[in-house]
Amino acid sequence: MKQLFSLFIFLSSLSLFSQEKDPIVTYRPTQSAASTVVPLGTGLVEYGFVYESAGDFTNITFANVLARVGLMKFAELRVTQNVLQVDNDLTDQSESGLSPLTIGTKVHIMTESGARPQMSVIGQVTLDNGDDAFKPGETIPEVRLNFSNTLSDSWSLGYNIGMAFPEDNTTTLYTAVVGYAFAPGWTAFAEPYGFIYENESDHRFNAGLIYLMKNYLQFDISAGVGLSDISPDSFIGFGAAVGF
To answer: pTM of the predicted model, to two decimals?
Structure first.
């Protein structure tokens, strides 16, 4: 808890150097990546905590940190790092440590026009590093197409389709999120998403609230359930994001 409080103070201190710019558009807390890119010369740091119940196991993400920096008018750099813990409730054993590092870029493809969505593409690779309990044993490339449509002043739609390419089990992912801005700064969302492997599928449902306190400072809370045999039973999370 002390570490979480320190991180919150760090994020808040970053916001002191932020100017009043356009509202930030974050990845979290949905699984759908935004179709926008971080503007040139600006950055965004996103933090999340997730508690996940999965049968005899409890999975905790103490820190999901995504840093995004605008490299060009149409492209951003993305770096993701997690601090993880897995508890075996049957044996009372626990593994914790750093996930492998994920590095990539998002490139803007086209802007929204009428029924045509805004579109971008993410290309990234998960490296063969991190603590032994979580390292993949190989680098894993991934590509993801991101789309969004403005349905009205209050309603929005986002959706992704992508693939990851581990050597032993190519994965297809999908997301679809509907957002409803019901009050100034407040958005509710609902989102089905999933991962389709060669021999099985993992489908889930996620919903939550997002509060944009300032154009550069956002907080969120979300929860969800698994819809497949291999999915977690349930999960809950919260987080924050700050632009600079």
So the answer is: 0.89
User: Side-chain half-sphere of 23: how many Cα atoms within 13 Å?
Assistant: 12
Coil, helix or strand at residue 168: coil
Confidence (pLDDT) at 201 = 97
Give the model confidence (pLDDT) of 155-214 as tens digits.
Answer: 999 999 999 999 888 999 999 999 999 999 999 999 999 999 999 999 999 999 999 999
| Nearest of 104, 57, 102 to residue 82 by alpha carbon | 102
Distance, in Å, from the CA atom of 49 to the CA atom of 61, rounded to the nearest integer, reads 5
Residue 43 CA to residue 70 CA, distance in Å, equals: 6
Q: Are 26 and 46 in contact (CB under 8 A)?
A: yes
What token pair was written down for 180? 């409803």
Q: How far apart are CA 116 and CA 47, in angstroms?
A: 31
Q: Please name which of 43, 24, 28, 39 lies closest in space to residue 175, comparing C-alpha atoms.
A: 28
For residue 167, the model assigns a pLDDT of 81
- What are the backbone dihedrals phi and psi of residue 106, each rounded to the nearest 5 degrees, phi first? -120, 135
- DSSP 8-state symbol, 244: -
- For residues 52 and 59, is the Cβ–Cβ distance under 8 A? yes
> What string of H, E and C letters represents the secondary structure of 77-139?
EEEEEEEEEEEECCCCEEEEEECCCEEEEEEEEECCECCECEEEEEEEEECCCCCCCCCCCCC
